[in-house]
Specification:
By secondary structure, this protein is of the alpha+beta class. 27% of the residues lie in helices and 33% in strands.
C-alpha cells in the first residue's frame, strides 16, 4: 500500500509507524525514524499551548532532505523526499493514499 508513494517523483522512503513508534511497514531507501517520537512530543506541546485541535502534518527539513509526518489513526506516516519544492505533490499523494 505505502509503496505506491515511491512512484511520486522525489519520494525516497516511506514508513508507517504505530502509536508506540514501531515500524508497521516501510518501503524505499532508509530514513531516520528516530525523529518521530520527539516530533510527536513537539506537536503535543504545541497543541496544549495553543489549545489547537488535531494536527494535519508536520514538515521537518533536514540537510539530506525534508520529512513529512502525517497522522494516521494512532500512528504516523513518515515520508522522506528530495526537496521542499516537492511538498505539494507529496502532500497530495499522501492525502490520496490515506483518504
Amino acid at each position: 500500500m505505502i509503496s505506491e508513494l515511491l512512484e511520486v517523483r522525489g519520494v525516497r522512503h516511506v514508513a508507517l509507524l504505530d502509536a508506540a513508534g514501531k515500524v508497521v511497514t516501510s518501503a524505499g531507501a532508509g530514513a531516520d525514524i528516530s525523529v518521530v517520537p520527539p516530533a510527536r512530543a513537539v506537536v503535543g506541546s504545541l497543541k496544549a499551548a495553543l489549545g489547537a485541535g488535531e494536527w494535519q502534518d508536520l514538515l521537518l527539513d533536514f540537510g539530506d532532505g525534508p520529512v513529512l509526518l502525517t497522522p494516521h489513526g494512532a500512528g504516523v506516516l513518515l515520508t522522506a523526499f528530495d526537496e521542499v519544492a516537492s511538498l505539494g505533490r507529496v502532500r497530495f499523494a499522501v492525502g490520496r493514499l490515506l483518504g
